[in-house]
Amino acid sequence: MDRLDALRLMLDVAEAGSFYSVARQRSMAKSTLALAVTRLEEEFGARLIIRSTRKLTFTHEGEILVADAPRIVADWDAALNGLRDDGPLSGPLRATAKNDFGRNHIRPLLDSFQLRDSDVDVTLRLSDSALDLICKGTSVLRQVVASTGWCEWQSNSARMRV
């Protein structure tokens, strides 16, 4: 269980007022829930909840964490949803190509792409010299060598010859 899951559990405990009801609602052992809270306490270096057989009381540190936790969880969820969003494309796209090929073939494609997806910040680097893709932050490189008849697509994570 990661920290965020433990934080969500702690929020549930704060809302429900008991370990038992949260454990039952989530179909998990009460000891698993208690261990998650204990690990949070160890990580924060402070006791967050004072537990007795009859009630739970949040310490000052626990109250501060419970006050901040909804924002932390919401920010994390929003960040994940933003990365997984199937909506319009956005962000930087850096492409590199040889001078003539880039001017004649890639630039018109990127121009029409940018008209369709205006939130993408397109940069086209034209060069006849060899480039270090990672160092230059290039997303896509297309290299065509007419004399050998092969075409090479390369990205930061993959390389393919056609």
UniProtKB/TrEMBL annotation:
InterPro entries: LysR-type_TF_proteobact-type, LysR_HTH_N, WH-like_DNA-bd_sf, WH_DNA-bd_sf. Signal peptide: none annotated. PROSITE patterns: HTH_LYSR (PS50931). Residues 1-59 form the HTH lysR-type domain. SUPFAM superfamilies: Winged helix' DNA-binding domain. Coiled coil: none annotated. It comes from the Bacteria. Pfam families: HTH_1. Belongs to the LysR transcriptional regulatory family. This is LysR family transcriptional regulator. It comes from Terrihabitans rhizophilus.
